[in-house]
Amino acid sequence: MGSMGPAAGKPHAVCLPYPAQGHITPMLNVAKLLHARGFDVTFVNTEYNHARLVRSRGPAAVAGLPGFRFATIPDGLPPSDDDDVTQDIPALCKSTTETCLGPFRDLLARLNDPATGHPPVTCVVSDVVMGFSMEAANELGLPYVQLWTASAISYLGYRHYRLLISRGLVPLKGIRRAAGEWIP
């Protein structure tokens, strides 16, 4: 990560959401906050979601701003017959886990090329489900932050699931199964 003049000291965050809308929007909000605080930001979408965004909003939607750019990596899924639907989530989970590390490593290498004129990557902010990005960040000695994009209570449930089971609190007992039975 050599010197590149004035940009060399500027922090550069690479933001990588899980490729589903409920994950992309919160990560984009974090990326905007970082950019507003002086970070260079590279927001990484899958090629599939990037193409959907361009189709729905036009090329200006991903034109970026000075210091804010979009980049893509493949998601590893075969091309879809319908390019405007949510992908098969279980297949996407499996595919991103198994195929995205290499393309993400390559992207980080390209972003760190002094010829880009951008500051080198100084940290990775990744969706908690994109665990492969931690391996890539560790290989480069980069700080790594995970973003939980769901609610805080869902995180607590996930984090303490085994404890909830051991105390007999999960699965819930005695709850009526039909929504109509308990909704006033």
TrEMBL record:
InterPro entries linked: Glyco_transf_N
GO molecular function annotation: quercetin 3-O-glucosyltransferase activity; quercetin 7-O-glucosyltransferase activity
Every Glycosyltransferase N-terminal domain range: 14-140
Pfam families, per the entry: Glyco_transf_N (PF26168)
Transmembrane segments: none
Similarity-based family: Belongs to the UDP-glycosyltransferase family.
PANTHER family: GLUCOSYL/GLUCURONOSYL TRANSFERASES, UDP-GLYCOSYLTRANSFERASE 85A1-RELATED
Protein name listed in UniProt: Glycosyltransferase N-terminal domain-containing protein
The organism of origin for this protein: Triticum turgidum subsp. durum
